[in-house]
Each structure stands twice: as structure tokens, then as C-alpha cells.
Amino acid sequence: MAASPTPESKLNLLLVDDQPQNLLALQAVLEPLGQNLVTANSGAATLRCVLEHEFAAILLDVQMPGMDGFETARLIRQRERCRHTPIIFVTATPEAMELAGKGYEAGAVDYLIKPVVPEFLRVKVQVFLDLAAARHQLETEIAERQRAERKILSLNESLEQRVRERTAELEAQRRRNEVILNSAGEGICGVDREGNISFANPAALELLGYTIEEVIGQPQHALIHHTRPDGSPYPREECPIYAASTDGKTHQVDDEVFWRKDGSSFPVEYSSNPMRDERDRLIGAVVIFKDITERKRVAEEFRALNADLERRVEERTVALREANETLKSQAAELKAFNQVMVDREQRIIEMKEEVNALCKELGRKPEYPPVWRKGPS
Description:
This protein has helices spanning 20-30, 43-52, 69-77, 96-105, 118-184, 202-208, 212-215, 220-224, 240-247, 293-361, and strands spanning 12-16, 36-40, 57-61, 87-91, 110-113, 187-192, 197-200, 251-259, 265-276, 282-291. By secondary structure, the chain is an alpha/beta fold.
């Protein structure tokens, strides 16, 4: 029956024989490999073992009462998890060579005839142990890489969601600011041909910080438009508001500032439209303006957001490029690993031929059936 499980660092080898002395012999030969040796004394016990454990290789006796080795092997192969588990038949029957073909049809990877040379058996089993360890390592690396890829994907999705939320917040803020500006109304004031203020609406007075008595009859340019944004003087002759009252044209500006009563300034967007009387005579200009401080702030936030998005895209591009290089490196490693497996298989064939040659020199029957060599590709 099966031995108790051992630490996960060891690989499982299943030894199957209905004769206790044969199992003891196999254990003695394979004990130096330092792996977990599980034993079974029948085909039914073998099937129970493969249901409970995963094995790096199975050494299976051919002649057993009830279910023989061939039937046991075929049932093992029906399990998906055991479909590729190496099975080595071990037999002492006189017609062993004739049964070799039947063994390979049942799913065996090798067919040994007792008595087995211990050194050769250990070498054969060690090859399958190495293959199992390499396959486990590869599966572990693939699983780790898949976990890392899922984590990266999750982080990317989280980042994209945060970017979408932040963009939506900024857009909502922009709309709120726009509603606030529209609700507050635009400042409107009129100037005569000499440039003196003739009227101003409540929104204009609130923006500028004056009362109506403080602005009526005062020179508009000297009161609110006397200095450029950089602090340099702004000549009245260059003022678009004054120009509209003299040249009869509409002037629109969005890169200047108006000055408040307290000496502070704010960026404005304004249009200066010529004002005419009922006879179409030019009598001054109407100035419609609004504070665009919030618009500029939002625009700056959008510029900062765009710069941040570009940086994130660049970082993600670099990460994907690095991941691509890693995949290329792993593909190269896998190719090298496949070549190692091919070389090992070739070495096993050469060892079988060497053993058969030695048997021939000793006058014994060949240890192994003839092995077909694949010609050069």
C-alpha cells in the first residue's frame, strides 16, 4: 500500500510489484535518489495511489494476479493527470522481449528485464525525476508570471478607473464653474466717446468692487484698465475698449486684466461693441466682460492632467516593452530547455545501446529492445 506522504520538496516514485522481496529490492536501489518512494502490491492499490498522489514516474510489474501491469497502465493513462506520467515496466517473464511491444502500446516509456542493473535503473529514474522537477519549475514560473500579469492588469484597470474618475471630476467641476459663471451674470458697462463710464450693471459693480456712484462719469480706462498684466502702463490709445468707441468696430480680448477698487486685478474676457444712437451715430461703446480666473485654473488643471496621462502612458509603454523582452527571454529559455530534453533522450538511447553491447560481449540477451534512431533533420 502507499507510504505516508513526505515533504513537498521531494518527488513521488511509485513502485508496484506483488512480491514483497521485489519491492524491497527496488526500494534499496532507488533509496539513494532521496525521493519519496510509494509502494503498491496490486493493480487496484496502484490506481488508489494515483488517485491520491502525483508521481514523477511509476515502476510497474507486468505479471500480477488479478489486474496485470498492462491493464493497470491502460487505466492509469485514462486519467488526465496521469496521461503523461512516465511508466517503466519491470518483468522477469521469459517472453519479456515479445511482450515489450504490448507494454509500449499500454503507455510505457521503457521496458526493463530482471535482473536490473542498479546503476542503470537509478540513471533512468533520475532522468525522469529531472524532467518532473523541471516541468514543476516551469509550471511554477508560468503560474507566477500569470499571477504577476493579472496583478499588472488589475493595477492598470484601477489606474485607468482612477483617471476616468478624475477626468469626470474635472469635467463636472468645469460644468459647475460654468453654471456659476452663468448664474452670476456677466459684467456690463457703457462708456461714452470720451471714454467715461455711463452705466454699469450689478454684476460689473460686484466684480470691480465699486458702487454705482463711484464709477458713473469716471474715465473707464484710468479706473479699471490702466495697467497690463505684466505691470507695465497701458496707454489709452492702445485700449480696445476706447477703440470701439472711435472706430465703430467690435473688439474681443481674452488676455488682459481689469483692476478692482482695492488695487487687485483679475483676468477677463471681454468684448467692446460700438454703441450707436437711433440715427446710427457712434456715441460710445458697450463692454461685456467676465472674470475668467476659474476657467484658467480649470484649463491649467486639464493641462496638468494631460501631462500626467502622457507620463503614465509612457511608463506603461516602457513596462509593456520590458514585459515583451521578458517573454522573449523566457521563450529562449524554453527553447534551450527543449534542447536539453532532446539531448537527454538521445543519451538514454545511447546508454541502452551501450548496455546491449555489453550484454552481447558477456554473451547475454540484450537488456533492451532495439531502439529506432531518428535521422538528422
